[in-house]
Design a protein that fits this description.
mainly beta, five-stranded mixed sheet, 6 helices, 7% helix
Amino acid sequence: MTRHFKKIVILLTILILKPLFAQVGFQGWILDADTAEPLETAQVIVLDSDIGTVTDKSGYFNIILPETEFDIVLQMSGYQSDTINTKTLTKKSKQQYYYLERKPFEFNPVTVTEYINNNKNAPMALNLDIGIMSSRSVLGEVDVFRLIQNLPGVSYTNDFSGLLFIRGNNWDHNQITFDDVPILNPYHFGGAYSSFNAESVKQVEFVPGKYSAEHGGYLGGRINIVPKTGDENQAYPTKISLGLLSSKISTGKKFGNNSYFFSYRRSYLDLIEKMVSDNSSYYFADFHGGYKYQINNKNSISFHYYYYYYSKDVFTNFLEKDEDEIKGLTQPFWGNKLYSFKWQYTNKLNIKILSHIYSSVSKAYSNTTHIDINNELKNYTWIEKFNLSINQHNLCTGFQFQLLDYDHSWNIQDSEELWNIVRPPESIFFDYAPSKFNFNNSTKTMSLFLQDEYKINSKLQFNSGLRFGWFELADYYYLIPSFQIIREFSNNKKIFITISQQEQYRYTLKSITNSDYFAPFSAYFFMKENQKPLSSLNFSTGYHWDIPELFLFRIEAYVKQMKNIPKKSEYSSHEIIYDKLKASGIDFYIDRYKQKGINISAAYSLSYINVLENNKQYPASYHRLHNLKLEVAYRSKKGIQMGFRGIYLSGLPYTPILGKFLGAGTDVDDGIYWRIKDPFSFSGALGLVRGEKNS
């Protein structure tokens, strides 16, 4: 009787408590309704409970629910939320695809749409929305590179320069791209401003190092300019603006599955000068046009055309007196042009195929009796990329084929006009090159890459990458690995440990000294046979803590060893020597962003950048020990904007002069010896010595 009684009690207990303990799985994928791209970190929240989760890189989520009725909210910043009642779910519908519609954030006069961060594996990667950044204080006008200079790990030589030195690398070690197309000379106004009109830029993707095998061929950071396509739903689709430096016009619109956008900018210093005198000196202009056609939710075709060869940097009063009556001469100009075509396919199984074909041309030209230049580099590239998820692996693989054609041809003689503006002509354009030089060649490069993001468990991820390729001109095969561990403590807190190798196969020989900011154009050279590539071995560890729409905090420490860095010898004007560099430091970044009210951004970097030469060590010319940057911006509900910016930098060139030296100097300017040719030959006068090697 007792045994039967126990069975009855157990049976009644199960029947009573079964509704409380019965559980059912609810899983699926959350995708962008327009592009069908997976939404990472989208929130799945069970109302009136403490149950919830976020999606992974493939947009996948999986939670366990009691077998009772609940309302479940699917939401993500920048998208319209969706509410699902579990009572309406069937067994088949408990594992399916859910699509969220985009919801733009609207200001007056700009619209900011949430943009998906494609650099989740880089702890200090930042996506800058120009609509947000433009509310912060600027001098003159909003400039992309000036905004980037306020980020951690980025330094610059002086207040007039827009050149970017990222984590110990020289300015020509960075990969700067427009819609993922490389731009080799992306500067206007002698290097003071970027050639990207802020009105045509949707977002800037900034990554201070290399964290993926997908991109290669550079030592420094990666900066990708994401252009507008006309589907941003701006409050004012057409804008005309007059600035201190230039005037701009831009317009864009979406109609059906089509969208277009174009912008034009021109400076008018030459026009102002022409009004008050018979001469005009210099102007710059740029144009961006784009068209996008969305076939359906799976396919999109976009065509971006960025062309400022037609609208170029040009000296308008360069010809000397003895050249005025000679027909057929051309004023010096320089610039870039590119064509870009993309096709993308994404299906509901999260298999993505991207085809990208582009051409990028960098050119400088002058046809005068004193300066004859025809310098051009053409880059034709085809990229195929495949993304797919298999079990716990998120794979990215593909190939890249490049055809590079370059023509270096110049004959530079003394030019009184240009000497009066800056430095000798050959040092402005061609890196202290010989007065006469000719080099014509073409080469091919091929690369295969594979990046695997392996989710070991819900808190631990291991990433590995491999890039393999061939550089024809040097007959050089390369194999570049990278490894990363990501430990996730919560949805918003992660720690990263990264080891990577980088190589670069092109370089300039332009030496940016402490007082230089005029660097409009540089000749790029490619490694040749028996020449070792520029290389870097990097180690970094970082931590980031992000609370969406409230604040983000990031910190990363790094150490890198670089070698085979070519430069011109200080003692022999046309001799190439190769440096070894060592850089280390730590970057902090905190940002508080709100659509209305006070926004605060603070960055601090402690960095050491040293040149290793003949068992000696001295700071690089762009060394900055301390970089502290603070920005405070206020945006009222009525659209009134106010901003404050404070910057503190220490190191060269702010303490560049050591003392006096008696010896044979070269390039004497106002009693300052810029370089000492031979410290043991005393034939010069008493003068000040710059402390590039000793400060």
